[in-house]
């Protein structure tokens, strides 16, 4: 039985993984809140995709990989199978996206939240163990079934709570508190699943295939930066409900053109045409100025 170290670099990797999960959860909750307030199906799909990328990609999968940087097994190096690693990321994003689609469309109910939470939680657990299967080391991975079941239960509970928060929480302080709670839940699921693992080393040390941590770290960090910047930009550029209300109020304050204007008549924003009509009222010949008293016939 090999000695496993989950915190090879001390507190740095768990702190960074928690920070990433909180950041992704916060941005994802904001995007998810826009789903039910969107006015078109295209807008709902857009905010659902952004929320899935934030929660599934950043809060869950990137957190998982950051925590794995601190994972080490004494007596062997660790490399990662790139296709399986990418598949684990796609699984996380797809699971969260489908869960949001379940609760974000139609009439909101407890059944929808539970069904979406079960599906999303199972997807998150599948992401975790797919990412673990992507490891390449000189040994065999063995899991304790009880702790595996416990980690799946935590993933389902965390996903259900996350979906419920995504469609109910609106205020800023509540969003921050919800993101902090979600960060604890996501990290709790990860380290519970990791505690179920034990490694039996091989007698012979063979050559390992796959990519090293340093090879994967740079593209992952760049992807996180681009995703976070893109999400922040999308949130800042999108009009809020207050913006829409203000625009509607300005529309009601605008005065329409006179109903008596003939077709093809150019606009008269200064009201000169109406003034001319008032001054010619009752004047012979349509003179635009009133007649002076000394102009009357003698």
UniProtKB/TrEMBL annotation:
Record's keyword terms, sorted: Membrane, Transmembrane, Transmembrane helix
UniProt cross-references to InterPro entries, sorted A to Z: MHYT_dom
Keyword flag Membrane: yes
GO cellular component: membrane
Signal peptide segment: none
Species annotation: Micromonospora sagamiensis
Protein name per the record: NO-binding membrane sensor protein with MHYT domain
Residues covered by region (Disordered): 251-298
Residue ranges crossing the lipid bilayer per the database entry: 15-33, 45-64, 84-103, 110-129, 149-167, 172-191, 211-236
Chain ranges of the MHYT domain: 9-200
């Amino acid at each position: 039985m090999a000695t496993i170290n989950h915190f090879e670099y001390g507190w740095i990797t768990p702190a960074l993984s928690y920070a990433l999960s909180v950041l992704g959860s916060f941005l994802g909750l904001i995007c998810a809140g826009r789903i039910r307030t969107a006015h078109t199906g295209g807008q709902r799909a857009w905010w659902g995709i952004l929320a899935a990328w934030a929660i599934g990609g950043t809060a869950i999968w990137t957190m998982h990989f950051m925590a794995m940087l601190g994972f080490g097994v004494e007596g062997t190096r660790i490399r990662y199978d790139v296709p399986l690693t990418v598949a684990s990321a796609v699984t996380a994003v797809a699971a969260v996206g489908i869960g949001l689609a379940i609760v974000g469309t139609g009439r909101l109910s407890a059944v929808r939240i539970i069904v979406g939470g079960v599906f999303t939680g199972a997807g998150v657990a599948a992401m975790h163990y797919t990412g673990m299967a992507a490891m390449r080391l000189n040994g065999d991975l063995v899991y304790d079934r009880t702790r595996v079941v416990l980690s799946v239960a935590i993933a389902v509970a965390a996903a259900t709570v996350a979906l419920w928060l995504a469609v109910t929480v609106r205020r800023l302080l509540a969003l921050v508190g919800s993101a902090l709670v979600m960060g604890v839940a996501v990290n709790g699921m990860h380290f519970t699943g990791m505690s179920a693992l034990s490694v039996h080393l091989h007698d012979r040390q063979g050559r390992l295939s796959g990519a090293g941590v340093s090879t994967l770290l740079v593209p992952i960090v760049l992807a996180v930066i681009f995703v976070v910047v893109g999400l922040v930009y999308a949130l800042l550029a999108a009009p809020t409900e207050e913006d829409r209300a203000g625009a509607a109020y300005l529309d009601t304050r605008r005065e329409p053109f006179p109903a008596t204007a003939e077709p093809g008549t150019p606009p008269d924003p200064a009201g000169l045409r109406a003034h001319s009509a008032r001054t010619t009222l009752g004047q012979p010949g349509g003179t635009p100025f009133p007649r002076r008293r000394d102009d009357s016939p003698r």
